[in-house]
Design goal:
The complex is a heterodimer of chains A (188) and B (540). Chain A folds into 2 domains: 103 residues, Helix Hairpins (Orthogonal Bundle), CATH 1.10.287; 61 residues, no CATH class. In chain A, 56% of the residues lie in helices and 0% in strands. Chain A is mostly helical. Chain B starts with 11 loop residues before the first helix and ends with a helix. Chain B is an all-alpha fold. The chains are: A mainly alpha (188), B mainly alpha (540). The interface between A and B is large, with 63 and 65 residues.
Amino acid sequence: MIDMSPNIVLVVTIGVLFTAGVYLLLERSLSRVLVGVVLLGNGANLLFLVAGGAAGRPPIVGDGDDDRRMSDPLPQAMVLTAIVITLGMTAFLLAMAYRSWQLHRHDEVQDDVEDRRIARLAARQERATTDTDTEGVVQTLDEEATEARDETDEGAPARVGAGDPAGTGDGSSDPAGSSAGRGEGERP
Amino acid sequence: MTATDLSWVVPLPVVVPLSAAGLTLALYRRPRLQRVVSVVALSIVLLAALTLLVLADDGPLVVDVGSWAAPVGIDLVADRLSALMLSVSAAVTLCVLLYSLAQGSQDDEESAPVSIYHPTYLVLTAGVANAFLSGDLFNIYVGFEILLAASYVLITLGGTGERIRAGTIYVVVALLSSVLFLVAIALVYAATGTVNLAQLAIRLPEIDPGVRLVLQVMLLLAFAIKAAVFPLSAWLPDSYPTAPAPVTAVFAGLLTKVGVYAMIRTQTLLFPDGRLDDLLMWAALATMVVGILGAVAQDDIKRLLSFTLVSHIGYMVFGIALSSGAGWTAAIYYVAHHITVQTALFLVVGLVERAGGSTSLTRLGGLARLAPVLAVLFFVPAMNLAGIPPLSGFLGKLGLLQAGVQLGTPLAYALVVGSVVTSLLTLYALVKAWNKAFWQTPETEPRTVRLPFGMVGPTAALVGVGLLLTVAAGPLYAYTERAAAALREWSPYVYAVLPDGQRGQGESVEVAREDELRDHGPGVEPSTPGMVADDAGGEG
């Protein structure tokens, strides 16, 4: 049976690293996020050391003459890999923060443009999208019904609203002409 | 195993793109040669994947990398599930590569540095293949990191302000999920003393159920961020649409599915007792409904498709959470269907943007007259995604609904209803997109653009693959059924990796046996000196 009771110093250190890491990850500045990621990564690496059992034993002892005193080399190999990966990611994040500074003179994580737009519209109580099929038409169905006539109505023209440029019937006419009329109403 | 002579094919999907990536990086001054290398490499991967697809039907193929026996050494396993995922992803990556080649040669004004595109893209494919093939939890992590590192570069390609903004969100969220995954692996190792999937499958049932639950939650959390399952999905529609069309297409098709694959693998192999199934079902329901409501509200067609992507991840999670052979069968089939369809749609949107000059649905219009071929190319996968019979989306959804009804719990029925509603709303969102982009009278007189055949061809090919999934649905569904049955039986995978339940094949076994004979020592767990060099050298 391997002794798996963890070292209290290691456990506390892991706790501190994760706390600080999470706190920094929630910051807006990308360089602080970067430091947060590094702390989190190191916390995870220490966790691997804990997973490897008690400290203080050599990883490889000769030909295994006293194999009870050998510590588990597998977590150390995994930590090595994880360190290399974290290094690469850190380098990339640094490059990105620098690029952001180059472009905007700051490295703050920006809001999503679409989210911003929707939030602004919500603040003004406006709708996010306009529906071209209904928005250009001023009439409601009831109004249209009162205006519509057919041959049973005596002596009247076939349709009253036929000349209306925003009418629904002109979709099949030439695209350039009608698009001018329909395009205006969509986007204020 | 009968096919041991051909097991050398297994590492090819990882090794070939990685070597080609190095080669293309060295050839950065010779763009033409770069292209040839990339296309040849990905064609080899496709061939290898199809070979594996056939071979794996007779039983899983296992390779112990570097002849280090399985529990300590890294092993690659190609069973039916892996081989199917690999084949579909290889076909998709090849199509997207051809598409991006044509796009690259078309617009030179695009600031994307093409010389870095090829190596990165190849590394991405290698990472995806590694994640699919790996039989080792830590190696899955390495595969994830390989593909994520490549995806960071691809999503910020060119380093424009917009892409840096979107890339920041993507990178930070991905890094967080990586840390979670790493912590989960450390905990798994602390609890069981192994990261080999087959050995974990044997050992996990022996440990304390509470600890097992913690491990399961940690792993699911890490994979759910990658797969964009609802409460953890907000990053996806923010970050995907800004990337170049082929990049978005391959991300949408593959990256989330790698997360789904990892969920299937761990849920079926490591935690077959299904204690979190109810939670997963709720997550699936929320993913479907919230995702599709987001899609309905969108005006930008790329964002709309990103939201449908999130929404349809819910179907796969639903299938996983059913924990039955029928559910897993449908989920696996659905993953294969969704990879092709979603990628095809994003490629088509790239063409729409080129033809219409925008991705905003209010500005697009009249494309049906302008580019009839494009209209067909959009219509078929769009209907396929919405699940109109007889296309493959319908078959996948039908399978899920049947499996849900079979389970028969109230929650399963709620999900059945939810998935039908989601399907209808998908139809609504896509028909709206269709009406606006293809039938609406355009705001300005559209300029006539000749769509290059090099871009239309691969897109059409991918749409064709989607149709092939429909035509060949019978054999394919039977294949996924066998794959799910093998997952359910659980032992074929374990005993393929560890024939005696203890060690895999490989030279190190003989060495270890000799050592044991000489030393008669009981030995510490991993009694193979030299492991350190092997592990670190292979991945560092």
